[in-house]
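Q: Focus on the chain.
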Amino acid sequence: MDLIRVGDVCEKIINNPEENIELLAKLVEIDDPLILLALGKLFKNICPLYKIRVHSNKIKHKNADLEINKTDKVLLGYYNKFLKTICNSQLAESYKTACILLESLDHFNFNDRLVSKVLLGTTKHGISDYCVNTLVDRIKFDEDSIHLILDSCLDYKFGPQICDVLHESSYLNKCVQMRIDKEEKYLKKQYERPPKMSKEEKKFFGRKFLKGKMKKEEKCRLILQKETRKEEKNELDCIDDKIYVKTINALQRLIFTVLKEKRTSCLMGVFKAVRTFKRIIRKEFYEGLQFLLNENIQETKSIDNILEGVNTIISVFGESNYDLRISLNKLYQVARPFNPDLSDSQLKVCCNLIRELFILRKESKNRSKNILARLLVLSTFIYSDDLDKLVKEITNLYDIDVTDSSLHTSTTFETDIDNSNKVSFICNSLRNKRNF
């Protein structure tokens, strides 16, 4: 079929879908690049703004149930055939068409097929960037398809870009805010008791005993009032409970899978996501989460991943009574004097994390002496205002005498903050040169 005729057919269908919808019969099964793109834009324009439920023959729009008309059923049948053609095609245009439909029809039927096709396109050379950008955009700004993307990406070789934008998702951040509001409301309700009513108020607001017709009218009024309040609440929350549960479960599954499989390229994004969404991660998973976080920062060699992981552990478990020994050891190793990979920005982050652990949270005297000895040696090789301030803060808070020989029991290359050996020659030669 020539392109001019395809254009004429698409124009007729857009102008009058009810009468010309049958013209799609010969087009939806043709695997041609230009026809795929043309039909993708056609369906983008003629598909309705609701999901068609064929089994119930009804359309649920807000609180109203509308009947499905014949045109909707025919349209859904052709759309189904067109998606089968796209999914079976290996053309680059088929992946681009799936991206166009996912961006425009994320509310419509067969969304899972589009998500799978786009995820498959992230592994194809030449079209991968286009597919990745589509998924990133959906995660950031969409709420209808985000749970499908998070749930389906585990079946494909997804890249780190998906994990990197999780903390920027407007829908997930809305879920966090909703959880915070619910917790605050519960605490407020728990601590604030309603004032006692007088006898006259009790008579007026007390339970009324009605009979006959008045009782039936009052029952109908209460049912209507309940439905109205529920509708107002849903409009205020703007979050569907079913989608909310699916999204949170998919997010948790993605986080724990990445941590368990130790996908190094995705760790940075997952650490940020855990920090951002710690309020919506179920409490019973916290013990396993801490184990996986510790395991990942122990095995990774990237300083950025170590610092991000330690920051996440402090953010989630810092206020609890957990012993953060593994995090302390990793910071102790990062702050070794002859570390060629340590940049100025990384040193600043490391100092801030040590300050959180030793100044804001506090640790034992033995650990504070060992970390101070390590920082003293490091400060002789690297000049940094943050490092000097941190040394002074730890010295003053823990009342440590820097001239005491017991302070310098930590060797330069020791890796365990709790097991220090005898004095290193560097510490001995420099311990009397520090002035506070």
